[in-house]
């Protein structure tokens, strides 16, 4: 019995394919794959970011997209000026309290599956402006963030690393079963409440359905 | 360029009813400034802009200042005769000054290439009477910066064509650059809590509408 035939029979009988066998097969020019892999491979290699920048981090994001660092090597060069065509929101820079509702609204307008990168200290936590009267203490107070890239601003290499980490995350998303990706779950929300301008602060000042401040064990 | 005292006396000779005070500066740069009364401020500004020797045609900066109520202590040393021996004794007098807001204009001349000349306008107090005349009719470049001073300090400029908030949102009611401004309570976790932060966390847990699930 030939190797290819044996592999096909095994895959059909168990529904799964042995990793060693698959490697052997691919060396002989036969690609055995799953729908999930093809699907994730396609998505991770054509991430279309939403084209907007909020502060100096955007300059590094632009540098990463331009010829020297060349985000196109990873399939992320198609910056879309419309949220309806974007998969990835790169929050690059300081989110002021005046800007935060617009950022959340843009996120809500993006179709699923969608991902968020918080780029730089300000987008993560407010950074050097954390106690300022008009700076949001991190965009993760209102929308779920997939990748945090620290730095002030992060260099393009750091940005590319964050981008590749996101691709790795997409690669491991499941299409079926109990651990399937959140965007395939009809119950998990894809839109989040847009905060309102209040007399003293944004209302609410954070969305506790999204924002989980880390618990700290104190002796 | 003329000295600030010369400018002040020329203002008075051109506009006799003007209220002009020269405010000295004890710091190293010694940058003196002119305090204007409200009634004549626009006329004085127009004089400074149009006078042939000054031509202060460029208002580069408008900013605000917040002066809280303060007590100024002055100590004077006098010689006193105690038990037939002359000794030095210090006499301290206290003077309480009410607070006010101040708008500061920094002027240059583009055509004569000199400056700066600094103008000050003071409000009567910090809370109720916070009005000063706007100088936007004289220098158009003051428009947005007066809006900023209004937004952050709460100085109301009479005669401003479009006095709205410029940085904060319209629904905002505070003036965040005032010295007595307190931020809304949005405490979050601190990795290394210490004195003030611990008290803040306790206040937050007691009063906040949605306290964080603190460990």
Instruction: Let me know the largest β-sheet of chain A.
Output: 3 strands, parallel
- Given the helix and strand composition of chain A, which structural class is it? mainly alpha
Give me the number of helical elements of chain B: 4
Widest sheet, order of strands of chain A: 1-2-3
Low-pLDDT stretches of chain A? none
Query: What fraction of the residues of chain B are assigned to beta strands by DSSP?
Result: 25-35%
Integer average pLDDT of chain B: 87
Roughly what is the average pLDDT of chain A, rounded to an integer? 88
Q: Estimate the helix proportion of chain A, in percent.
A: 25-40%
Structural class of chain B: alpha/beta
Q: Calculate the terminal CA-CA distance of chain A, rounded to whole Å.
A: 66 Å
Unreliable residue runs of chain B: none
Shape of chain A: globular
CA-based gyration radius of chain A: 21 Å
Strand content of chain A is 5-15%
How many runs of DSSP E, i.e. beta strands of chain A?
5
Query: If interface size is counted as residues with C-beta under 8 Å from the partner's C-beta, which chains form the largest one?
Result: A-B, 21 and 23 residues
Q: How would you spell out the order of helices and strands of chain B?
A: HEEHEEEEEEHEH
Give the assembly state of these chains: heterodimer
Concise structural overview:
Chain A is mainly alpha-helical. Chain A has helices at residues 3-14, 19-27, 35-44, 57-65, 100-109, 120-125, 156-171; strands spanning 88-92, 115-119, 147-149, 196-197, 202-203. In chain A, helix 4 packs across helix 7 (156-171).
Detailed description of the structure:
Chain A has 219 residues and is mainly α. Helix content of chain A is 33%, strand content 8%. Chain A contains seven helices and five strands. In chain A, the strands form two sheets. Chain A has a three-stranded parallel sheet. Chain A has a two-stranded antiparallel ribbon with strand order 4-5. In chain A, strand 1, helix 5 and strand 2 form a beta-alpha-beta unit. The longest helix of chain A has 16 residues. The mean pLDDT of chain A is 88. Chain B has 215 residues and is an alpha/beta fold. Chain B is built from four helices and nine strands. In chain B, strands 1-2-7-6-3 form a five-stranded mixed sheet, covered by helices on one side. The N and C termini of chain B lie far apart (65 Å). Chains A and B meet through loops of A and loops of B.
């Amino acid at each position: 019995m030939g190797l290819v035939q044996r592999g096909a029979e095994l895959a059909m009988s168990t529904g799964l394919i042995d990793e060693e066998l698959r490697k052997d097969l691919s060396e002989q020019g036969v690609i055995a794959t799953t729908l999930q892999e093809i699907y994730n491979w396609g998505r991770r290699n054509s991430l279309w970011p939403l084209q907007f920048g909020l502060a100096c981090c955007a300059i590094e994001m632009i540098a990463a997209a331009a010829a020297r660092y060349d985000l196109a090597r990873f399939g992320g060069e198609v910056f879309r000026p419309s949220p309806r065509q974007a998969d990835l929101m790169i929050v690059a820079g300081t989110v002021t309290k005046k800007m935060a509702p617009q950022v959340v609204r843009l996120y809500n307008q993006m179709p699923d599956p969608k991902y968020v990168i918080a780029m730089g200290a300000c987008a993560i936590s407010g950074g050097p402006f954390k106690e300022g009267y008009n700076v949001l203490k991190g965009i993760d107070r209102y929308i779920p963030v997939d990748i945090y890239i620290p730095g002030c601003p992060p260099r393009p290499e750091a940005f590319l690393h964050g981008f590749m980490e996101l691709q790795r995350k997409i690669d491991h998303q499941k299409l079926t079963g109990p651990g399937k990706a959140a965007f395939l779950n009809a119950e998990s929300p894809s839109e989040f409440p847009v905060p309102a301008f209040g007399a003293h602060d944004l209302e609410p000042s954070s969305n506790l359905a999204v924002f989980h401040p880390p618990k700290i064990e104190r002796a | 360029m003329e000295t600030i005292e010369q400018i002040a006396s020329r203002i008075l000779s051109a506009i006799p009813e003007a209220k002009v005070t020269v405010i000295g500066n004890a710091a190293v740069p010694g940058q003196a400034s002119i305090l204007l009364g409200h009634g004549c401020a626009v006329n004085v500004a127009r004089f400074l802009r149009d006078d042939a020797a000054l031509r202060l045609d460029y208002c580069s900066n408008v900013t605000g200042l917040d002066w809280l109520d303060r007590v100024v202590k002055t100590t004077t040393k006098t010689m006193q005769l105690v038990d037939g021996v002359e000794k030095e004794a210090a006499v301290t007098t206290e003077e309480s000054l009410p607070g006010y807001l101040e708008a500061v204009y920094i002027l240059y001349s583009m055509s004569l290439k000199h400056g700066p000349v600094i103008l000050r306008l003071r409000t009567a107090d910090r809370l109720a009477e916070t009005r000063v005349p706007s100088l936007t009719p004289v220098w158009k470049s003051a428009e947005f910066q007066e809006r900023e001073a209004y937004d952050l300090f709460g100085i109301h400029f009479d005669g401003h064509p479009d006095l709205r908030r410029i940085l904060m949102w319209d629904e905002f009611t505070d003036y965040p650059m005032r010295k007595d401004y307190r931020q809304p309570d949005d405490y979050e976790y601190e990795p290394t809590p210490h004195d003030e932060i611990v008290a803040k966390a306790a206040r937050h847990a007691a009063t906040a509408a949605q306290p964080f699930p603190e460990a």
